[in-house]
């Protein structure tokens, strides 16, 4: 099973994993609500690929610059 993390903002592929079996717990997916799962996970059975929406480092930095008050709170 191929697991691909793709940035939902710029579309860049962030990471790719190959798992012998799909373990939702190992990916942290078992903690998601059904709505979050539907939003984040897309499953392509034909290609045996699971795509997960995420954010790449560059876009996370961009978001922090867009939200300087939130950024200052964290740091
Ligand atoms: Zn990105």
TrEMBL record:
Superkingdom of this protein's organism: Bacteria
Annotated InterPro entries: Fin (IPR020115)
GO process annotations (BP): regulation of gene expression
Name used for this protein in its record: Anti-sigma-F factor Fin family protein
Species assigned in the record: Caldinitratiruptor microaerophilus
């Amino acid at each position: 099973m191929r697991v691909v993390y793709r940035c939902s903002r710029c579309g860049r592929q962030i990471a790719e994993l190959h798992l012998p079996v799909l373990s939702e717990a190992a990916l942290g997916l078992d903690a998601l609500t059904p709505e979050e799962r539907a939003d984040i996970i897309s499953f392509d059975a034909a290609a045996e690929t699971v795509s997960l929406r995420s954010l790449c480092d560059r876009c996370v930095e961009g978001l922090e610059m867009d939200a300087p008050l939130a950024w200052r709170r964290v740091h």
